[in-house]
């Protein structure tokens, strides 16, 4: 039986994970879920050390087949630890952060139905976390772009396009300004693309892509949108608005021999304990995790039931037009399964 490290997280994270586990149980998924601690709340209670992740959690992560992470809080304060997600991505070289952007049944956004995939390099760029003081009044941040990581994430993106039968890949960059770093990224993408002649590559500057995304998003249907870490983090959040909100966006962080799954949204601490946050992204991330460990029938059952509950629009949370709470929506999905 596969082992899954299960991090509850902060804020609304634990209740979202509990909602997901109700659905997991209903699906009959065969996996050993090992609960472990990480995040700002654990850090506050345990002496504010150098990491948001305790040593015992690292041991569980290393011994598991994959990880599911509930939303965690990252403090925007100098001297505090780097985020849980970044720490795990870098430790296990989870170079491909993947977020599907696909409209849900009976919930088409204001700009119409869309269907594309955001893929971002997840371990380097400005998220390398290298900052230093030049003087008391000037600081610098280092943006690292490597051929190895650019090649790895590009290969994942092209493989995903091939798997889906898609023939377009958009490479998001600012190579007219960042000539060396984005130049290396684009060079790596095109080199990998030589092995995928059926997939056409379109190089798009980030500012142009941002404008196109709100002007004519359908031009990116059935396209893998690939970019560096910070660019695609921001753009995938913008793209989430096309399908309703970030509460609907599920995600995976993929490496060669490990993966972490998580909802794309934050921990929303202001809603903690209120039973009102949409659990869709958490539940669908869990389904994706089950597919990763070979539990494909359980994964499909969860996805189908979630889509049915959203389409019916009755037992859903307020952001989807309903009056049901987090656990009530999860139970509705479990009931259908």
Could you say what the CATH topology of the largest domain is called? Isopropylmalate Dehydrogenase
Estimated structural class: alpha/beta
- What is the CATH homologous superfamily assignment of the largest domain? Isopropylmalate Dehydrogenase
DSSP helix fraction = 25-40%
Which second-level CATH architecture of the largest domain applies? Answer: 3-Layer(aba) Sandwich
Number of DSSP helices? 11
Low-confidence stretches: none
Domains counted in the coordinates: how many? 2
Strand content: 15-25%
Q: Can you tell me the CATH class of the largest domain? A: Alpha Beta
Fill in the keyword field for this structure.
2 domains; about 40% helix; Isopropylmalate Dehydrogenase; two-stranded antiparallel sheet; about 325 residues; alpha/beta
Describe the overall structure.
This protein is of the alpha/beta class and 337 residues long. It folds into 2 domains: 1-98 and 246-337, Isopropylmalate Dehydrogenase, CATH 3.40.718; 108-242, Isopropylmalate Dehydrogenase, CATH 3.40.718. 39% of the residues lie in helices and 19% in strands. It contains 11 helices and 12 strands. The protein has helices spanning 13-27, 40-45, 55-63, 84-91, 147-164, 181-193, 206-215, 229-240, 280-292, 296-312, 326-336; strands spanning 3-7, 32-36, 66-69, 96-102, 115-121, 131-135, 138-141, 168-173, 200-205, 223-227, 250-254, 259-263. The strands form 2 sheets. A 10-stranded mixed β-sheet has the order 2-1-3-12-11-4-5-10-8-9, with helices on both faces. Strands 6-7 form a two-stranded antiparallel ribbon. Helix 1 links the parallel strand 1 and strand 2 (32-36). The protein is globular and about 55 Å long. The mean pLDDT is 96.
């Amino acid at each position: 039986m596969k082992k899954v490290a299960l991090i509850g997280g902060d804020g609304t994270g634990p209740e979202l994970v509990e909602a997901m586990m109700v659905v997991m149980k209903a699906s009959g998924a065969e996996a050993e879920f090992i609960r472990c601690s990480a995040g700002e709340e654990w850090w506050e209670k345990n002496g504010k050390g150098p990491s948001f992740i305790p040593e015992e959690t690292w041991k569980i992560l290393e011994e598991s087949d994959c990880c599911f992470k509930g939303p965690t809080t990252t403090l925007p304060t100098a001297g505090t630890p780097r985020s849980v997600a970044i720490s795990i991505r870098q430790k296990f070289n989870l170079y491909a952060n993947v977020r599907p952007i696909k409209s849900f049944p009976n919930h088409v956004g204001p700009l119409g139905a869309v269907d594309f995939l955001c893929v971002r390099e997840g371990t380097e760029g400005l998220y390398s976390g290298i900052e230093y003081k030049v003087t008391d009044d000037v600081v610098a941040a280092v943006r690292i772009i490597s051929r190895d990581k650019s090649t790895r994430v590009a290969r994942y993106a092209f493989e995903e396009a091939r798997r889906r039968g898609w023939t377009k890949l958009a490479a998001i960059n600012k190579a007219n300004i960042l000539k060396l770093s984005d130049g290396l990224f684009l060079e790596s993408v095109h080199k990998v693309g030589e092995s995928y002649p059926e997939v056409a590559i379109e190089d798009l500057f980030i500012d142009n892509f941002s404008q196109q995304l709100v002007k004519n998003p359908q031009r990116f249907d059935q396209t893998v949108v690939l970019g560096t870490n910070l660019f695609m983090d921001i753009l995938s959040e913008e793209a989430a608005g096309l399908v309703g909100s970030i509460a609907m966006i599920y995600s995976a962080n993929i490496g060669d021999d490990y993966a972490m799954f998580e909802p794309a949204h934050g921990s929303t601490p202001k809603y903690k304990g209120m039973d009102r946050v949409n659990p869709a992204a958490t539940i669908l991330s869990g389904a994706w995790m089950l597919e990763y460990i070979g539990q494909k029938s359980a994964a499909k059952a969860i996805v189908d039931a979630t889509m049915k509950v959203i389409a019916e629009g009755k037992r859903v949370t307020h952001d989807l037009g309903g009056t049901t709470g987090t656990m009530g929506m999860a139970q509705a999905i479990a009931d259908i399964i």
